[in-house]
Amino acid sequence: MRLYHITTNTASSVALADIPVVEYVDLYNDLKERLADSRYHVAHYFAQEIENGLKFYIIILDDTRSEVLISSFEPDYYTRGLASLTAIHPQFHPFEREIHELYGVPFDQHPWLKPLRFSHDRRDKQSTMDSYPFYSIEGDELHEVNVGPIHAGIIEPGAFRFICNGEQVLHLEIALGYQHRGVEGEMVRNQNRLRQTLIAESVAGDTAIGHATAYAELIEKLAGKTISSDLKRERTVAIELERIAMHIADTGALATDIGFQLYQVACEALRTMTINTTQAWCGNRFGKSMIRPLGTNHPLTVEKIEMIRNNVREIRRRYNEVRCDILEAPTLLARFEQCGLVPTAEMASIGGVGMAARSSNLRRDIRATHPSGYYAEEFKHEPVMKSHGDVMSRLQTRMDEVLQSADYVERLLSTYTPSEKLPAPDYNAPLAPDSLSFSLVEGWRGEICHVAVTDSEGNIAKYKIKDPSLHNWLGLAIAVRSEGISDFPINNKSFNLSYCGHDL
Questions:
Q1: Whether this model's pTM surpasses 0.85
Q2: What homologous superfamily does CATH list for 183-495?
Q3: Which of these ranges, 26-40, 116-130, 358-372, has the smallest mean pLDDT?
Q4: What is the reported pLDDT for 489?
Q5: Which residue, of 134, 205, 351, 415, has the greatest Cβ tally within 10 A?
Q6: How does DSSP classify residue 211?
Q7: Which residue, among 207, 202, 196, 161, has the nearest Cα to 179 in the 3D structure?
């Protein structure tokens, strides 16, 4: 019996007829064993309404063989519950919680079947943020500390409920989903692809390039078209510039939280220089308008290449000075080392991705395990890995990746002669009907996954987006256990997860 359609991140879209429709019990038994091996993890798991109920799709990644395993099932969920995969593999918890919230599907033995987002179309309208079932512990010496959901400045809403014994955190529960954004629904409601691109850029404002790249690659697969090597190269430069900018910003934010203002100011200046470089290229500091399906409105010129190379060399030189100072600062090291530990096994258990996972010695990097675009051609990536899984490891991963990404930009542009024939974007290419398309992109936070299912006319009937934050919020909750509550800000900054990327 065939359980999966096996493909790769560089293949075209998959006809729905080629995706096996299996019995849930068979899929459950396979995943129970398969995901015990950390080489596998779930990229997406969602349900789509069909004429007779729901059809479920699941996408599993094999990080060793660079394979993508796709399966589906159609259970009679109204009369019986589904055995919860979360009960054996916690990485499934956000996916099963979302399915339960939207469709009321019961998952037997699920340890925390709570709302994930409180979307406007949730099945149980009586379930609201005011009635959210926060975990509680009784004890005369225990107390609760609530942070949020409204925060100072421009940060988005999110509630953090701490249970503490004195200063020590025993448990942190994070509740998100206050904005009811409806992003995925909008991708279906209006089939205008320029509008869809703009929405993709706005999934998480600090990852405009990453999410727009994921959308563009998905559409290109559905259109059955490939883009030129030159366009792939330019997209790679753009996403590495985004990585440099955000890692530098987080370095400064961590310095801020322990009072190292000099490092903060230095990083603010370098981050500004980086995003101004992006603005000089495409007209927007965050790279909006940079990535478009099947073409570009901002092809590189000889002058822009020279500007980018000069700026990135200077950013790398000055940032490396900050990096060396940080590694020689005893008070900073004492504050960050052995704080907020997330062991490798725990990170694998929750399905952690991106730089947070790599800081815990878990090799999760789409550029290496499931490369696409220029990474899949002659550009081999070797992930930065750290072993301690603490705040310092997460900072060191960022610092090393800034230097690595700067070197990548120089390598990509030093021998590049820009083409004058890069095509303009194409928003009208016909899409494959009755097909599933996915894209996997390594954003600066980690693994981004977009999935689309088309109908018989080639229109997008279902669109699902996964920001890496969906996996990693639980990592933050694990990191602060047994720490002092005053250590929460630096742990929070060391992950720097997205509220809006979660609230879709």
A1: yes
A2: Cytochrome-c3 Hydrogenase, chain B (1.10.645.10)
A3: 116-130
A4: 92
A5: 351
A6: H
A7: 202
